[in-house]
Amino acid sequence: MTPKLEQTPAAGGVTHRAPPRRTPATWVQGGGISRILFLLPMLVIFAAFSWYPIVRLVLMSLQYTNLVLPAKWVGLSNFSTVFHDPLFPIAVKNTAEFAGLALVFGYPIPLVMAVLISEVRKRRGLYSALAYLPVVIPPVIAVLLWKTFYDGSANGVFNTMLGWVGIAPQPWIGSQSAAIPSLVLESTWANAGSTVIIYLAALTGVNRELYEAASVDGAGLWKKIWHVTLPQLRTILLITMILQIIGTAQVFIEPYLFTGGGPNNATLTVMLLIYNYAFGNSLGGAYGEAAALSLMLVAFLAVFSLIYLRATRSWSRN
Amino acid sequence: MAAIRFEGVTKVYGDGTRAVNSLDLAIEEGEFMVFVGPSGCGKTTALRMVAGLEEITDGVILIGDRVVNHVSPKDRDIAMVFQNYALYPHMTVAQNLAFGLKLGKIGKAEIARRVGDAAAVLNLEEQLQRKPKALSGGQRQRVALGRAIVREPAAFLMDEPLSNLDAALRVQTRGEILKLQKRLATTTIYVTHDQVEAMTMGDRIAVMRDGRLQQLGTPEELYTRPANTFVATFIGSPAMNVVPAPVLKLGSESSLVGFRPEHIRVGSSLNGSVGFEAAVEVVEYLGDEQLAHLRLGELSLVAKLPVAEKVEPGTTTAFTVARDSVLFFAADTGVLTDPRS
Amino acid sequence: MAAFRRNRPSNDAGPQGLVLADDWHRPSVRWGLGTAHAVLLVLLVVMGLGPILWLAKSAITPTQDTLATPMSLFPHGIAWGNVSDAWNNIDVQLYLKNTIVVAIGSWLTAIVVATTGAYALSVLRPRFGKVIMAALLTTLFVPPVVLLVPLYIEIVHPPFINQSFTGNYWAIWLPESASAFNLVLMKRFFDNLPREIFEAARIDGCGPFRLFFYIVLPMSRPILGVVSIFAVLASFKDYLWPLLVLGPTDTNLQTLSVRLPEIEQFTPLGYFLAAMFLACIVPIVGFLIFQRGFLRGTGLSGALKG
Question: N- to C-terminal Cα distance for chain B?
Answer without folding.
Answer: 42
